[in-house]
Design brief:
alpha+beta, five-stranded mixed sheet, three-stranded antiparallel sheet, 20 helices, globular
């Protein structure tokens, strides 16, 4: 899970909570051009409860809620009845209070003077309609995989729609130009959803907030400290030897599993193996400690930690769904807290060990003899981070550092096994730079464009978290021709955007070559820069992106260098499901066939 998309797991849970949700907007037959891409507009109606009712359409371009009688009773919009049907779904007064401040049309040359606060305006480019019975929402967003629900919503409502999630109104954006408009208007301190569940745990335990839970100027100062030794490619390159050390142990473990299989080459669940690899690697980078994830017998405290991660995530969904009064009656809240407590205890133990090492070095040789090499060591000894800040931040970084690597590598090998011609071309590129028996280095990847393209294409098809959010808190913002007020929460539908056929022809197919400029016709080279942004954008982009990319490049190079990867017969077709992050719907079994030197 990346730092940019990490809050998506809570948003995912929240998306499944809104049984009272109403979707706004539905597509019409005409189209408008947005940012160079043809968007499908919507046309709809709004009705309300109580004294609020939609009396009429004020002009050909706006739909509005008015309190009282219409200002121009004789006007009638073309093709629309003057009196709206009562079958439109009604809004509760509490919904209306939020909706009334949600948006208004902002045309080029039009005055930005606010219309009456009692009016909610839409337009043909994205007008709003409240639709859907609660059971419809339950079907689309709980029983169907959430990524599929997003695809269906865009097909039905167009590239921008609004839905109510509990007490919140979310503006869903499902096109690259719309994402770009929001991302490029972020302020100095971008805000995601407030991570309420995580904060509750920190507050109960008296822990400081970390990079996921902190906001504003405090977040910015913390982020500037955590950026050190991670953010730049040259800094990530410093971890090449450490990662290769972990990869060597992973290859040993993989060979053991192959040897133990009936065929001598079968691994029944590669995602499980990649998860333990990624956890070992991120702990080694963050804490400068090996925790034994790749040993035949995993240490007990590491096993407990791994179980606690699953415990926390599983029970966070129940804690999000269920009202707070159930917490003392049902076990989920306590399990959620227990999971976090174990995670933080594990992190604190590693931090305390590092502090003891630093103290011993200082006592032995003085400050000039202290060895400042690894991430945590550097942050603590340089004064970038206090021990208390480290205890609040590093466990959150640890949670962010596993899913991106493990899931992306699983999907990459799955598709390479199904596309032997692409795998053969990749093997040719790999051994051309790193012959059999040699270990790849950071500098090698500048000459391996297909390797990078394979990972880019995998992340396009399977963004680790399919949705992410932003709250614009410091100013009103214009998006898609509408002016939204401060504190509007926008939901970025990354999964839908990255499979847009207008940006990526044949979007559901695995085509790494689309990222190779020399193979692209001029018309396709100008891919929209926000068509696939798996690591986010701007100052809140993924902190660990460069390390995650290096980690995947190093391991994929070693695997393709040594093995031909084939799909195990029992695996069959694999699809993605959103279980907090986007994961395979079944175990992915692969055969690793030893290549001849």
């Amino acid at each position: 899970m990346t730092l940019e998309t990490g809050s998506g797991f809570l948003l995912f849970a929240f998306l499944h909570r809104g049984i009272f949700c109403s979707f706004l907007a539905q597509p019409s037959d005409s189209g408008i051009n947005t940012g160079g891409y043809q968007e499908k507009p919507a046309a709809g109606l709004i009705s309300a409860v109580g004294s609020w009712s939609l009396r009429e359409v004020r002009s050909a371009e706006t739909l509005a809620l008015w309190d009282g009688e219409p200002a121009s009773p004789s006007w009638k919009a073309p093709g629309l009845p003057r009196t709206l049907p009562h079958s439109c779904r009604e809004l509760r007064p509490s919904e209306l209070q939020v909706l009334l401040e949600s948006s208004r049309k902002c045309e080029v040359g039009e005055s930005r003077k606010r219309r009456p606060s009692s009016a909610l305006c839409g337009s043909p480019c994205s007008p709003f309609e409240t639709t859907g019975h609660p059971s419809t929402y339950l079907l689309h967003n709980v029983l169907l995989p959430s990524s599929l629900a997003l695809v269906l919503n865009k097909a039905k409502y167009g590239p921008i729609w609004i839905n109510r999630l509990g007490p919140q109104i979310h503006v869903n954006l499902a096109s690259a130009p719309l994402l770009e408009q929001v991302m490029r208007q972020e302020g100095k301190y971008p805000v995601r959803n407030d991570m309420e569940l995580w904060k509750e745990h920190r507050d109960q335990q008296g822990l400081t907030y970390g990079p996921f839970t902190m906001q504003g100027h405090q977040w910015y100062r913390l982020r500037q400290a955590l950026n050190q030794r991670l953010l730049k490619p040259a800094e990530a390159a410093l971890y090449t030897d450490a990662l290769n050390e972990v990869i060597e142990d992973f290859m040993t473990r993989l060979n053991q599993q192959r040897a133990e299989s009936a065929s001598g080459d079968h691994v029944p669940d590669v995602a499980h193996n990649f998860y333990f690899f990624a956890l070992e690697a991120v702990c080694y980078i963050l804490f400068e400690k090996r925790i034994g994830c790749l040993e035949r017998s995993i240490p007990q405290d590491t096993e407990t930690f791994v179980r606690s991660v699953g415990l926390m995530f599983q029970n966070s969904l129940y804690a999000t769904f269920l009202p707070k009064w159930t917490r003392s009656l049902l076990p989920f809240w306590r399990r959620y807290l227990d999971g976090w407590n174990t995670i933080f205890s594990f992190g604190k133990k590693l931090i305390d060990q590092k502090l003891e090492e630093i103290e011993a070095q200082l006592q032995t040789g003085g400050p000039e003899k202290a060895h400042i090499s690894g991430y945590l060591h550097f942050l603590l000894t340089s004064g970038q981070l206090s021990p208390r800040d480290a205890e609040g931040s590093l466990p959150e970084l640890l949670m962010a550092g596993v899913d991106t690597t493990s899931n992306t590598l699983t999907w990459a090998l799955y598709h390479l096994s199904k596309n032997p011609e692409i795998q053969a071309a990749l093997h040719e590129e790999v051994v051309g730079m790193v012959p059999a028996g040699q270990v790849p280095q950071y500098k090698d990847f500048a000459h391996m464009p297909l390797l990078k393209a394979v990972l880019k294409e995998t992340l396009r098809l399977y963004p680790v978290v399919p949705v992410n959010s932003r709250v614009i808190v410091d100013k009103e913002i214009e998006v898609g021709g509408f002016l939204f007020p401060k504190n509007t929460q926008f939901v970025f539908c990354h999964y839908v955007v990255s499979r847009d056929p207008r940006i990526f022809p044949e979007p559901d197919s695995f085509q790494p070559q689309r990222w190779l400029r020399k193979n692209q016709p001029d018309a396709l080279r100008a891919q929209h820069p926000f068509g696939s942004v798996p690591f986010g954008y701007g100052v809140r982009a993924c902190l660990g992106r460069r390390v995650a990319e290096l980690e995947m490049q190093l391991l994929l190079t070693r695997l393709i260098q040594q093995y031909e990867v084939a799909l195990a017969p029992e695996t069959g077709e694999v699809t993605s499901v959103a279980r907090i992050v986007l994961v395979p719907n079944k175990k992915v079994g692969l055969r690793f066939l030893q290549r001849q030197s």
